[in-house]
Amino acid sequence: MTGPVPLPPPVWDFTSARWPEDDCVAAGADLEPSTLVEAYRNGLFPMPDGGQLLWWCPLERGVLEPGRIRVSRSLRASTRRFTITVDQDFAGVVAGCADPRRPGAWIDRSIARAYQRLHEFGWAHSIEVRDDDGALVGGLYGVAVGRLFAGESMFHRVRDASKVALVALNELLESQAGSDYLVDTQWQTPHLASLGVTTVRREEYLRRIGPLTAGQPLDWTFSTTG
Fold this sequence. Notes:
Blueprint: E1 24-27, H1 33-41, E2 45-46, E3 54-56, E4 60-64, H2 73-79, E5 83-86, H3 90-98, H4 109-120, E6 124-130, E7 136-145, E8 148-156, H5 161-177, E9 182-186, H6 190-193, E10 198-201, H7 202-213
Parallel strand pairs: 8-9
Antiparallel strand pairs: 1-3, 2-3, 4-9, 4-10, 5-6, 6-7, 7-8
Helix pairs in contact: 2-5
């Protein structure tokens, strides 16, 4: 098993500030790998807006609890139509998520570069969904810190492909961690709610992630499934 590359101590302090009663809690800092990992350990994630780097910790956090994913009969059938790979095309998944034609697209070049570096250091991972011809038709990416998987974005080019990616992620985490993990989805949306994503208050989320982020890293050297 190969774990993530150890990172130098972060320059920025995410622990001492008093956060406002707002989803957006800070601005500035940078996107260095150690900054990003430290932010996730403390419940924050970056999302730029208007050219400014903003940091978010939602008052109501979207989470997918172990064993709570909802897989309908039609979605289960869809999982058999695709092939799943892991960390085989991280850049392709990020590019799919960053497509400017998507509503609410927010992933800019600085974000893409930062997470590519994080992926090269073994902290960020992708789930790829491929059709019968091997073409990338959906997927998701995020950051794994211990037993917390902080999902960043997902996309699909054919029906159900992003849902299949989430099902695959859940199965891969469960196969190693049992019920000792958590998938962070940042916010809950109707789409995610239909898959079993619920919300927890900020205080509860921050309390729960401490032991998870301090846990042993999971093995991301998964085999292709289909």
